[in-house]
């Protein structure tokens, strides 16, 4: 077990999720320095030289990977996720080839294209429907579903405008029952690396772009075993310590690998209510080399409502009234944040995490929706 007293964690991230993670580290006795500007290699290297942290933890995709690689070679600093995991999380082509070609994980049939002509040829070969997305972009950005030949060129433009490379991945649409996130915690100790699994989390985007997730999403015993096997293999290949969000597609007993992100995700916010240790506490413990457990104490659900536009000025009295209505829902909780740093009198768009628990995940989802509906009156 590590002695965390006085050890410094340099946390690369911004926003409420990173703030929650910083708090989890502080509760374990770590000194946390949070850095929101972390995309420039020279500046990040200079900061690390100045603060001399014991751990560097990236909670954002836009991190100067070259700086992390250089720092990871030092004996006095540990970097999480590993530079390799960070690089592959930004390289959809490299990650998919690792999963399918090197590890032999089941995936949807896929191809890569470097021009609209190549994409046209792929579609002519594979047929419709097909999903096209950038090889390097945030999840969901630049993604299109192709249903007919006229969709090819617009999909190419949409994907390449969102991605960092003029290259796309095209996937056959696999008919699935649902998608799940399997939060997988990798730790290391005297006996070597160990992986721990949270209960599967189901999720989807609502019509108003709010993210809804719930735990547990029921899988058959066969599918659950397959999901854990896939998650363990990809996470052990990436290495390091911490929480990994493994995205999977499920159809009956069949499970397909979709993606892995070596950092915390909004779908995992449900663990704030559903588990003894939230995803933030699990990540902090794993990074610091401390014991973890993934005990679920109750089925739960969360709805994350993102700001839509400029927002409006909301009087304190109205905020209190909205919160009173939201928290009147049984077993509920709300985290409400101004999504921008606004001055006095400015209009503020609100970000909210609406959570609830129940004996059944269906009831928990209904409660979380009712909480979120009340909170959305602040828009």
Describe the structure.
- It is built from twelve helices and 17 strands.
- The protein has helices spanning about 15-25, 40-50, 65-70, 85-90, 90-100, 115-125, 150-160, 220-240, 270-275, 280-290, 315-325, 360-375; strands at about 10, 30-35, 55-60, 80, 110-115, 130-135, 145, 170, 180-190, 190-195, 200-205, 210-215, 240-250, 255-260, 300-305, 330-340, 350-355.
- Strands 9, 10, 11, 12, 13, 14, 15, 16 and 17 form a nine-stranded antiparallel sheet that branches.
- Strand 3 (about 55-60), helix 3 (about 65-70) and strand 4 (about 80) form a beta-alpha-beta unit.
Q: Which keywords apply here?
A:
four-stranded parallel beta sheet; 12 helices; disordered N terminus; globular
Strand content: 25-35%
Number of strands: 17
Helix count from the secondary structure assignment: 12
Helix and strand element order: EHEHEHEHHEHEEHEEEEEHEEHHEHEEH
Gyration radius from CA atoms, angstroms: 21 Å
Describe the global form: globular
Percent in helix: 25-40%
Q: Report on the biggest sheet.
A: 9 strands, antiparallel
Query: How far is the first residue's CA from the last residue's CA?
Result: 46 Å
Average pLDDT, rounded to a whole number, is 89
The secondary structure category is alpha+beta
The parts where pLDDT drops under 50 for at least 5 residues are: 1-5, 341-346
């Amino acid at each position: 077990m590590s002695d965390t007293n006085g050890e410094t964690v340099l946390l690369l991230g911004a926003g409420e999720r990173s703030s929650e993670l910083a708090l989890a580290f502080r509760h374990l006795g770590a000194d946390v320095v949070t850095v929101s500007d972390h995309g420039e290699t020279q500046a990040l290297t200079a900061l690390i030289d100045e603060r001399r942290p014991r751990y560097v933890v990236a909670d954002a995709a836009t991190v100067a990977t070259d700086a992390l690689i250089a720092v990871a070679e030092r004996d006095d600093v540990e970097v999480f996720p590993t530079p390799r995991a960070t690089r592959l999380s930004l390289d959809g082509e490299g990650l998919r080839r690792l999963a399918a070609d090197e590890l032999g994980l089941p995936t949807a049939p896929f191809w890569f294209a470097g021009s609209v002509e190549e994409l046209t040829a792929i579609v002519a070969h594979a047929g419709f429907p097909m999903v096209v997305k950038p090889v390097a972009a945030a999840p969901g950005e630049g993604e299109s579903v192709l249903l007919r030949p006229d969709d090819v060129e617009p999909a190419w433009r949409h994907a390449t405008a969102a991605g960092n490379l003029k290259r796309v991945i095209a996937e056959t649409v696999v008919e699935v029952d649902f998608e799940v996130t399997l939060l997988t915690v990798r730790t290391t100790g005297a006996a070597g690396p160990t992986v721990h699994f949270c209960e599967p989390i189901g999720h989807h985007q609502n019509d108003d772009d709010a993210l809804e997730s719930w735990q547990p999403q029921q899988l058959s015993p066969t599918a659950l075993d397959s999901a854990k096997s896939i998650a363990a293999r990809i996470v052990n290949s990436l290495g390091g310590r911490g929480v990994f969000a493994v995205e999977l597609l499920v159809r009956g007993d069949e499970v397909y690998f979709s993606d892995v992100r070596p950092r915390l995700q909004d779908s995992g916010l449900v663990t704030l209510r559903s588990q003894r240790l939230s995803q933030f506490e699990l990540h902090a413990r794993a990074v610091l080399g401390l014991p973890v457990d993934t005990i679920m104490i109750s089925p739960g659900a969360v709805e994350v409502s993102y700001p839509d536009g400029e927002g409006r000025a909301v009087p304190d009295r109205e905020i209190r009234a909205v919160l009173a209505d939201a928290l009147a829902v049984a077993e509920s909780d709300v985290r409400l944040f101004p999504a921008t740093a606004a001055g006095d009198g400015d209009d503020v768009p609100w970000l909210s995490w609406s959570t609830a628990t129940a004996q059944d995940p269906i009831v928990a989802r209904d409660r979380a929706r009712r909480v979120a509906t009340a909170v959305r009156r602040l828009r």
